[in-house]
Amino acid sequence: TRGGAATFWESSKVTIATQAVGQFSITASASVLHSNLSFWITTVSDPGNDARKDEFLDEMIRIRPPQGEPWLINGDFNIIYEARDKSNHNLNIRVMGRF
Which InterPro entries match (predicted)? Predict the structure, then answer.
């Protein structure tokens, strides 16, 4: 098998209040103990093929936290944001625009 996402934390430093598992992601609401810092964290795993990239991006839109709340997204997107990020000229401009 390949792919998948996982999120780990040090329970003596961070609490996790809300968790949601999507097709391509895991999202949690995190609070740092002994501080006022709270944020959303999403760990992603890319869909594995170009045909499912729209599903992946749609999921990112659905799971975004309320406006103004901090959001950390990490993992393997396997999507190019700008042409200079790619080592060849095989670009999917439409997906780049959505990203």
Answer: Endo/exonu/phosph_ase_sf (IPR036691)
